[in-house]
Amino acid sequence: MALKSWPDATQWIAALRLAVPALAIVAALGFLAEWLVWSPVTDMTALLFTAGILFFVPALLEELVFRGVLLSWLTQLTPRWGAWLSTLLFVAWHPLQALTVGPPWADMFLRPSFWIATLILGIILSHIRIRSQSLWPVILIHWFAVLIWKSLLGGPFY
Predict the structure, then answer these.
(1) Segments in the chain below pLDDT 50
(2) Cα(118)–Cα(100) distance, integer angstroms
(3) What's the CA gap between 143 and 146, in Å, rounded?
(4) Alpha helices (runs of H) in the chain, residue ranges in sequence order
(5) pLDDT at position 87, please?
(6) What is d(CA 138, CA 64) in angstroms, rounded to the nearest whole number?
(7) What percent of the chain has pLDDT over 90?
(8) DSSP state of 59
(9) How far apart (Å, rounded) are the C-alpha atoms in residues 23 and 140?
(10) CA triplet 19, 125, 94: central angle to 5 degrees?
(11) What is the C-alpha separation between 73 and 101, in angstroms, rounded?
């Protein structure tokens, strides 16, 4: 299983070489669309607590579902399109989440520019998951992205 596999140093470097530019593009898109704003958190206790929560939800949970279960299953059904299908489901999940659960940032999840950012991230994470044969890089990259959003770029706390 992909949770039992820890990538070697070469795989981590390859993952970061893809993730860093992709996250920079996502950040640029977010600033241009104004759903990202520079707003560092000053309450370190709240930040540490939030960081712990964010590891499990959304990073671990969403990656288990989209890059773990769905990607594995869909690539068995259709190797050529499995990664795209799981990525499109990942993108669709965010507005669905906004319309059903309605978290404080629901408006952001309904913006087409956010869908594009989520598509970019989803494509990169699917590629990293396939190449590394591990969920750990995608879990940690997803966690880092959401943590930066919440701690530095105006993302609301729970």
Answers:
(1) none
(2) 18
(3) 5
(4) 9-33, 44-54, 61-63, 71-77, 82-100, 106-109, 112-132, 136-152
(5) 98
(6) 10
(7) 89
(8) I
(9) 13
(10) 110
(11) 26
